[in-house]
Amino acid sequence: MLSTASAAAVLVATRRNKGPTWAMAAMWLLCLLPLAVGMISYRFVSPSNLLPDALIAGSILCVAFGALVEHLFRGRYRSAPPDSVRADADFVAMRSLARGLWLIGMTGGACVILDFVVSGGSLLNLTELRDSFVTRETASVFARLGSVLTWACLFCYFFALVFRDRLRPLALLFFMAPIAAYLLGALLSAGRQAAFQVLIFTILGQVIYRLRNPGARSGRALLPVVAGLMIAYMGFIAVARNDNQISDIKAEVLERLFLFDTANWFEALLGLFGGGIRNVMVEAIVYFTSPIALFDRFLDIGLEGISSGAMNFPFVFRQLEPLTGIDVAQMYQWKVAALDAQGVIGVGWTTAISHIIMDFGFAEAGIALVVQGYLGAWAWRRALTGGDLVDCMLAALFTTAAVYLPLLPAFADTNLFLTTLACIAWRLFGPKTLRDAGEAVRI
């Protein structure tokens, strides 16, 4: 497969400095390899249709080209952790900001709980809970407030990860506490994205902590513990959210919905484990591979260039609907109906690339991916070369967006979008803590 080869080539080419482009290539390989080796195949995908594979390969190379342009203009990465004076100034400024965001995030978590109680939610049946959440026609005031406040939890958590060596144990727990509110929103809607995001940010927080503190050895147990908890949660949700009207066995439900076959050797391997492990493994493989298969069907529905940005930035377009006339929900429903007409699951993910194409068209999607690659490399450079916490947060956000490319658009998630917007606003209008500290040292 051309796309698999492209992802492998980019992974090797960017292995030295890692960053968003490397993370993107690694994620594409994770999603593509089960298809490439025949572990799973989808009945509606024609092997003779090479267009989806070529477009995915081109998308990977567009992001890599954007990063290459940044590299050619700015030169080689030279890691330069902030000195103690600059790091102290950054910590003081960011601690004040994190305290304010702590209140915002915890308020958002309280609103999520109140919405759950008011709407009569129950955790006894996660399938019904998820269906009621997705199909809800109107949102309560608590749901609306919670959706625009919980992003602050992510910033507090990242602050605690990066500055954990400067925080006392109680202060560390204080700033980490909002991440529980962040995950609560996922639990009370039987969702998994928040857990996936926490896993990504824990990994990136650990990486950036090591970049800023070369030789530091603290917190080694944090990543395995968080990763274990998040994977266990996602596995539990995967098994618990099941359509019993089709079958009590989750793998059979997925097969009916996504129309796939698994290789005999893979089934033999799964047979060594219990039914629960088999269900979780099949769910995980479908989770990562089905968007690529459904991208094949998306290319036949003729919706390119119709939504003008609404699919990637729905939060913005919901506010601007009276001015633009673009109904985000209608755009989504058009896509669902068109996929249903193709005989596949309409609500399935179709990769972030499909949303960019739906927003801007094919050629414009290539340009957008080049820009994304450039911005990701720019943000990663700032994090590597002694940038402040906001620079590091932007690097983490752009890396997350790169990781999400094989699945769905990252900034369609309100929390990720508002966190990015807040960081850009702080970068443009807030105090430049490290720059000011550096000037003070030179004086």
Describe this structure in words.
By secondary structure, the protein is mostly helical. The chain contains 22 helices and 2 strands. The protein has helices at residues 2-13, 19-36, 51-74, 84-118, 126-134, 141-149, 151-162, 169-176, 178-187, 193-212, 222-240, 250-258, 264-270, 275-298, 314-319, 321-324, 328-341, 351-360, 362-384, 389-404, 414-429, 433-442, and strands at 40-42, 260-262. A two-stranded antiparallel ribbon has the order 1-2. The longest helix is centred in the first third of the chain and has 35 residues, at 84-118. It is globular, with a radius of gyration of 22 Å. The N and C termini lie far apart (58 Å). The relative contact order is 0.15. Mean pLDDT is 89; it is low at 435-443.
Question: Tags for this entry?
Answer:
single chain, 443 residues, mainly alpha, two-stranded antiparallel sheet, 1% strand, globular, disordered C terminus, membrane, Oligosaccharide repeat unit polymerase, transmembrane, transmembrane helix
